[in-house]
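Supplementary notes for students who missed Thursday's class. We covered one full example, reproduced here. Read the sequence, then the structure, then the short commentary at the end.
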Amino acid sequence: MPLKPGANPYKILDLEKGCTEKEIQKAYRAQCLKWHPDKNLNNKEEAEKRFIEAKEAFDFLYDKEKRAEYDKGEERVRVAQENYNKRMAQADGQRKRLIEELEKRENEVNGKRPADGSAPMTSAQQAKKKKTEQRNFKEEIEAIRRQLEKEVNEEVQQKNALMKTEREKHQKNREKTMPQLLVKWKTSEGLDYSEDDIRSIFSNFGPISNISSAISKKDRRKRIVEFEAGTNAWGAELETGNSPMPELTAEWIQPPVDTIKKAENPVKSNTGNGSNLEHMSLEDLEAQIMGGF
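Structure (token representation):
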């Protein structure tokens, strides 16, 4: 899969030069997870584009020859300057290696045996060998990439299945939960709230199933307002009452589970049932499952 002109494979996979093959595989797998189309339904076009770019970058960097050529091109100016500075000092060594290379090529042309005694390959044999090596290498890269993509697909499917299960549990939990609000106030100048007063005030936030008897201690009062199961009564904790009546304060004993909003200082529930996931909003739930692996 060719790399698009101007694309930087290191940047696409968030890698640095000199990275290992294992690091390339790990980076590619991470990009596949991040941009998998099934995880980006609201941005599918962009996700598919990034998914393909990651494949192209993986194929390119995993090919050592292409990668070496790319790295060499990136550093051509620096390498040229270094070579110039070293040229005179290394002249004798370079000349010797040049002679050895010329002798090697001459021997190949004249059909002489290599130093190990094996028969020299013809041009056709060399071309065939190179073609075979290239094909085997491409197959190796493709096999590795397929395995990584298979792992990613399996992980995404597992997350989707977990998401579905938790959504169902979330819905059931919402339907059975009866929000309970602890309401407190201090009587002043003989002014007090009756049960009907409390019902009138808090029924604005949803249907009420029960209001407890008042708990009194000197001039302080408490009542528990229980809403019907599944009621989204958020906001009730902010109610302060009706002037000139005493000011009300409220906090959740059992908060609603319908939205992402949470009470600032909720009273800890005594039920002890359910996981943290069950009390999350669907938005938080999705972020936890799809982004927390």
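Commentary. Confidence is low (pLDDT under 50) at residues 259-276. The chain has nine helices and five strands. If anything here is unclear, bring it to office hours.
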